[in-house]
């Protein structure tokens, strides 16, 4: 007997009252193996979060749950596959876009930031540049940031991450909607 149930490579790290939800395209192969977001040693994700003062110390990938203490959540567009952005991943579907949109409207972070141009362009379905996008998801402001992957060193622009962090600080801290633990499973229905 086979099961049609497919599990996420990495569970979402989401809760109410987040400042930021950071969204990648899909978990990388190292992240999938380590069961931790942005786990490849050459990935600049954890360093740039600290450098921009979005976290007060540089966390390690295995500490990713600690991001909730800093008002930061994590997810990916494609939850059931792992690989690099340029690798052959399942085509982003309307269900993938709807899942992310539901997550954002459910948890209502101040900001949704795609952690690569590929992720942002796949979500919006067309060419986009780095920075804040004109569209919002509800009240959530949307940004596209340069990839922190070592494979994307040629397009690395830390200044965009710094501008994003300044916008987050300028927006202030959201007031808690309600006390609830983190959601680390998929509460959004079928994909």
How many helical stretches? 5
Strand proportion: 5-15%
Main beta-sheet strand count, sense and barrel state: 5 strands, mixed
Order of helices and strands: EHHEHEHEEH
What's the Cα radius of gyration? 15 Å
Count of extended strands: 5
Strand order across the largest sheet: 2-1-3-5-4
Distance, first to last CA? 22 Å
Low-confidence region ranges: 176-191
Give the integer mean of the pLDDT values. Answer: 84
Structure, described:
By secondary structure, this protein is of the alpha/beta class. It is built from 5 helices and 5 strands; from the N terminus they run E-H-H-E-H-E-H-E-E-H. It has helices spanning about 30-35, 45-50, 95-105, 115-125, 160-170, and strands at about 20-25, 70-75, 110-115, 130-135, 140-145. It is globular.
């Amino acid at each position: 007997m086979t099961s049609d149930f497919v599990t996420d490579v990495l569970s979402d790290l989401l809760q109410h009252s987040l400042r930021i939800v950071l969204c990648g395209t899909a978990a990388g192969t190292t992240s999938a193996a380590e069961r931790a977001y942005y786990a490849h040693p050459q990935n600049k994700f954890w360093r740039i979060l600290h450098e921009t003062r979005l976290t007060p110390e540089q966390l390690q990938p295995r500490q990713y749950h600690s991001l909730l203490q800093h008002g930061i959540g994590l997810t990916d567009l494609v939850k059931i596959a792992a690989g690099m952005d340029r690798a052959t991943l399942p085509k982003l579907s309307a269900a993938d876009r709807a899942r992310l949109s539901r997550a954002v409207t459910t948890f209502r972070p101040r900001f949704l930031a795609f952690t690569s141009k590929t992720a942002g362009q796949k979500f919006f379905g067309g060419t986009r540049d780095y920075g804040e996008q004109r569209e919002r998801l509800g009240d959530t402001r949307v940004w596209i940031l340069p990839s922190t992957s070592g494979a994307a060193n040629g397009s690395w622009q830390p200044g965009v991450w710094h501008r994003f962090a300044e916008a987050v600080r300028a927006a202030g801290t959201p007031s808690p909607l309600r006390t609830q633990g983190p959601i680390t499973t998929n509460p959004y229905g079928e994909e």
